[in-house]
Amino acid sequence: MSLFWTIPLTLIIVVTGTALCFWLLHKAHEVDSSVWILEHIVCPIIRIVLLLMVVSLVYPVIEEGSTTAEFWQVLRQQGQFNDLLNILFIAGLLLAFIPLLSHPVFALPVQSVLTIAIVFDWQYSASNGAIALLPSATVFAKILLYMLLAYFVTRESSVLLSRVIDRHYAVDGSIRLVSDAIHMLLQIPVMLIYCGYLRTQLG
Fold it and tell me: CB-side exposure of 133: number of CA atoms within 13 Å?
């Protein structure tokens, strides 16, 4: 799939998932226990599924001729979808306790790179021997610089957009969902950088 289609499909996926979380939280706003469950369990799981869908659109750039369907085929083997879902959920919980990485501009790219690394290892390690999954210093620097750029670009836009949503729907606190949506869109270059790094190792 070309990048031309990846961007609008990603936008549709992210907006749909974010709207679903926002709607669920809005409906459960007056029930504290339900809000806690939605914020800490349901919405993070939805966010992980969205992340997997976005990664599946970018992942095929690793090998010419591969498709998004192959990404899901790897996950279906031996119940690996559930394994990856659990890994990403736990990773999200751990990142929440790390001051810098708890911010979505860093947390989401970390989770997406982790997803790509795990699926790549499952798919290629047996046939290609030892493959370096950790990014090189150059690749790491590129990813870090881009994440910092994404942070400054979206810092004000997420605030403005969340204010419009809060005012329109008479709610409060949509900024986290809005910022997650924006950062999930803007992490596509991070995934492309890392996928390009893995592609060079396939020869």
Answer: 17
What does the radius of gyration of the chain's CA atoms come to, in whole angstroms? Answer: 17
What are the pLDDT digits (tens) for 107-119? 888 999 999 999 9
Sites in the chain below the pLDDT cut of 70? 1-3, 30-33, 78, 126, 128-129, 169-173, 203
Residues 195/116, Cβ–Cβ less than 8 Å? yes
Q: Which residues, other chains included, contact 156 with Cβ-Cβ below 8 Å and sequence gap of 6+?
A: none
C-alpha–C-alpha distance, residues 38 and 21, integer Å: 8
Query: Could you give the CA distance from residue 38 to residue 148 in angstroms, rounded to a whole number?
Result: 29
Give the per-residue pLDDT at 58: 92
Taking a C-beta distance cutoff of 8 angstroms, is the pair 95, 110 a contact?
yes
Distance, in Å, from the CA atom of 45 to the CA atom of 170, rounded to the nearest integer, reads 26
CA-nearest of 128, 120, 104, 126 to 51 is 104
Neighbour-count burial for 11-37, b at 16+ CB within 10 Å, e otherwise: eebbeebbeebbebbeebeeeeeebee
Task: List the one residue out of 58, 25, 64, 93 whose CA is nearest residue 184.
Answer: 58
Report phi then psi at 134, rounded to 5: -70, 130
Tokens 């659109």, located at residue = 57
